[in-house]
Amino acid sequence: MDAQGPGSQQGTTASAGTSAASPTHRDGPMLFVESIDHPVCDPDDYHHVSRVLRVPDGSPIVVCDGAGRWRRATFGPEPTGAGVVYRSPRRSPAIAVAFALIKG
Fold this sequence. Notes:
Blueprint: E1 18-19, E2 30-32, H1 43-52, E3 60-64, E4 69-74, E5 80-87
Parallel strand pairs: 1-5, 2-3
Antiparallel strand pairs: 3-4, 4-5
């Protein structure tokens, strides 16, 4: 988990709300929370991450709000945020148009 890959923003001094690459698996497990500013882990999610994925308290994770904002945090019942809140760039959906010509 200490390896930093291309998408990693370790040591970034940018202000909150700036754009950054999306988190990768190297940043730790991803946990979705209602508020990224005050993350609270749902009891079912806490059980899944701690028992099924076997992530011990104090391990690095990524908390996301589902709206493109994320930050690194430390795992626990109330994850503690560490550092800047990033905003992943919104990707435009790929659009494809197809039609079939019918005879007659």
